[in-house]
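We read letters as residues; the fold follows as tokens. Both lines appear below.
***
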Amino acid sequence: MPKYPLMTPATRKHKPSVLKNIFLTITTLAILGLVFFVIIFLYYAGQVPDPSAIATRRVSESTKIYDSTGTVVLYDIHGEEKRTIIPWEQIPDNIKKATLASEDSDFYTHKGIDFKGIVRALYKDLTNLSASQGGSTITQQLIKNSLLNNEKTLARKIKEAVLSIQIERKFTKDEIFWMYLNQIPYGSNTYGIEEASQKFFDKPAKELTWPEASLLASIPKAPSYYSPYGNHLSELISRRDSLLEKLHATSLIPDEEYNLAIKDVPKFKPSQENIQAPHFVIMVKDYLVKKYGEDIVQNGGLRVLTTLDINIQKIAEETVEKYAQINTTKYKAHNAALVASNPKTGEMLAMVGSKNYFGKTEPENCIPGKSCRFEGNFNVATASRQPGSSFKPFAYAEAFTKGFPDSTILFDLPTEFNPNCDSSALQKKGTNGSDCYNPQNYDGRFRGPVTMRQAIGQSLNVPSVKTLYLAGIDETISLAHQMGITTLNNRQDYGLSLVLGGGEVKLVDMVTAYGVFANDGILLKPNFIKKVTAADGVVLEEFKQEETRVMEPQVARLINDVLSDNNSRGPVFGYNSPLYFSDRPTASKTGTTQENRDGWLVGYTPSFVAGIWTGNNDNTSMTKEGAGLSAAAPMWHEFIAKVLSETPPEQFIKPDPTTTDKIMLNGVYSDPFGVHSILYYVNKNDPLGSYPVNPYSDSQFSNWESSVQRWISGFN
């Protein structure tokens, strides 16, 4: 018996009939689809503008960004259009070649619509699971910017296709390309290659060099994002370098010119735009472009009401510029940033992303994003940097949440935290080749038994590492995320060094997170835009606050009490340090990263939070004297003093008293059983519960205990 039945004459006769029906169905559907497409095409063909109007651009209206009062214009994104039409002959070949390579390499072979480009773009979108590839030709882009709008609808795309065919029939390729180069937006109110050349390089387009031409050709893809005066200059240069490589690979640029161009550091004409709070405005603009699209932001006439307090912003700018110059001289810290917010509303009140948005790079011929100690337009406030000890409050807050009181005793002693390393050797490498971890305090001293209150107040490193272990690394990261930290997402990358700033965070996030402490444990969603209104008065969005309790009031109050305790921090920082105000309580925490690369201070009152960063953009070290206390704290103190000078002092709510009879948690470290590490008496997962049955089962116990026993033996 065959495995499958043999085909009988009847079945053989039936199979072609089935195939014929399938073929007829597919053919019918295809014809109907084609007819439908033709009908739709013809329908919209009668609605398109006159293609002859391509020579004049549609009227547009500028978008205005206001301060919180709605009376101060921070930035007019469009303003009066600036465009200078130049003849085809005055547009150099390098800008023509660079633009074609960047935007539409098949321009001179297609008929207005590049079907290969559409398929290629669709393939990239599918493989990347995104919708970033447009596939639009130069002709389509010209139509979109001149006759239509940027809305992503089928109707607009069909009209665009119709007009592309008509334009290609009416004008030559050179004429279309000429109109494109004279009308394409290069950001803000700059249109056309001549105006862009004058704006960015202070020279006519005919004098553009290869590195300049390729850079300008890299902008139209996203003029706001890739603005040379924005926060993405390094990405623009990377895009330019990729374009130069493409031009070189296709032999459009000679070897010698390519080798010179790829090493060129662009020298831009200083921005002359009338803009206030530039880093804040650029952040707002980036948000708007991402949400509404480049065209709407440039030409849609939006009215944007922000949260920025212009008076606080001016104080912030003056303070940052003043102390950044001081720190450059004293500590070789060439830059600084500041963010301020209201923890009771979540509103950002001020943002200074560098000491001078319009300042020249330092050193003068440095490469942006690589070797510059200072880049004016780069917003350090939104960049990821190591926070040093300013991260410690998150670990202590999680420890308090688990039940550890601030009176908990921890031993500040030389301690090895890698169980695979010799606890007494305190070396960099263990016998098995593993990395050992035995951090030091900033002054090289160890203070023996200290309370958690003393440890965080004096910013002692060893007790803080122990606190992170007791609190739990994952739990501490989770708490930080709940409080507003948006980084630290690859948890496997972080160990106990996290509490000393071993991860990277953003200043804007740290200000939000510290605001949770100030606001009694409640996170208010951070915001910088109150309302966006369309040109016709329709409200497109209006911020509605959301609040989330992320920690118990007792924990927040305890952190506030500890961070504002001048007596606890006094032995290390001094009793009249910049952290102290005689007329009002303030809570604060400094941070200094490894090799003095970053100096931080984040501090607050119940209604005001301000964070300071100082250092160098390229991560080069400050001098040994430069740190959170010496470089950042004076800046923070003066800013706070000026902003709050006419406001009455506010008191933090005191935490409830905590009492416990348990050894090590009640401020006592000695009992009849002798002196031991905290892991002898406390189960870290249940600190208020019973004593551990077998302390040695904890991987950290032996190393912690051995350091305590060596300390005890030194007294005997």
About this structure: Residues 388-499+659-716 form a domain with the Beta-lactamase fold (CATH 3.40.710). The longest helix spans residues 9-45. The first strand starts at residue 64 and ends at 66.
